Amino acid sequence: MPMNGADIERMITEALPGASVEMTDLAGDNDHWAAKVIAPQFAGKSRVQQHKLVYEALGGRMGGELHALQLTTQAPTSDG
Q1: Which CATH number covers residue 49?
Q2: How buried is residue 18: exposed, middle or buried, by Cβ count under 10 Å (0-12/13-18/19+)?
Q3: Which of 13, 35, 40, 56 is 20–30 Å from 5 (CA)?
Q4: Would you say residue 54 lies in a domain?
């Protein structure tokens, strides 16, 4: 059974406190998602390390309940 966007967002924000998550259903099937995640935990980490943190937050559901996730990650930026 596919995961809905609210569940994905909740899992990410619980694992990465302070994260901002924007979910987009790419195919309208609740099975192919894009997530833009901005999290303070990403500061100083490579893109691969950032993505690993998100995958860990999803607890092994990638490839199973969650078929496809296109990730965009970044640390927060300061505007001042």
Answers
A1: 3.30.300.90
A2: exposed
A3: 40
A4: yes
Alpha-carbon distance 35 to 3, whole Å?
13
- Phi, psi for residue 76 in degrees, rounded to 5: -60, 145
- Residue 61 CB contacts under 8 Å (≥ 6 apart), including other chains: 3
**Tens-digit pLDDT profile for the chain (80 aa)?**
778 899 999 999 999 999 999 999 998 888 889 999 999 999 999 999 999 999 999 988 877 777 778 999 999 987 54
Q: Give the angle 26-10-40 at the CA atoms, nearest 5°.
A: 95
Q: Which domain holds residue 30?
A: 5-74
